[in-house]
Amino acid sequence: MKLLTRVLLVLLLITPLFAHADEASKKAKVEELLQLTNMNQLMTQMLGQMSERMKTSAAQQASTMKLTPAQKPIYDDYQQKVGDLITGSVNWEKMKPLVVQVYDETYTEDELDGILKFYRSPAGKAMVAKAPQLMSKSMTLMVQQMSTLQPQIEQLTKDFAAQMQKSAPPPAATAK
To answer: What pLDDT is stored for residue 55 in this prediction?
Structure first.
């Protein structure tokens, strides 16, 4: 009976070690997957494109704001600070632990094994190699598609502003 108790006690003590080893193995597979898919480069490229689009959008917005010469540098400084804040907060070094966690929570270890097998294959390597081109072309198409909506969005905005103005309570009369 004492032997059985000891065996059970040893099993209870080492079970968490196996779980930790499995978790470390899974995290290592997630890390390998991120490396094989060049997630660092893709994230950096995506963030760079977002930054450029934000700058373009800010320049367009500034042109419609009719800023005075004194206001223009203030606006530019504001846009620079917003860009720096986003760039400093949303970069691969800060995002990687979150991405690892999401992959870890989303995929089982068996699924990761299958995914890794694909990305190690010639087809998987071709997919990774061509992903930047694919992303760039997709972003260009999305921007083109969104630009066709701009007149409709502007009209909806004008209609909305007019409706809001109509539904606003009349200004209170000042007492004399």
So the answer is: 82
Give yes or no for a contact between 135 and 48, defined as CB atoms under 8 angstroms apart: no
Alpha-carbon gap, residue 45 to 79, rounded angstroms: 20
Domains of the chain by residue range: 23-128
Mean pLDDT by 10 residues, the chain (176 residues): 55 51 84 92 81 82 83 87 84 89 94 95 94 86 86 86 84 64
Distance CA 140, CA 147 (A): 11
The span from the CA of 53 to the CA of 46, in Å, is 11
Give the single-character DSSP code of 168: S
Cα four-point dihedral sign 158, 163, 164, 165 = positive
CA distance 34 to 23: 17
Q: Take residue 31 and report the two structure tokens written for it.
A: 């890390």
This prediction has a pTM of 0.59
- CA-to-CA distance for 132 and 135, rounded, in angstroms? 5
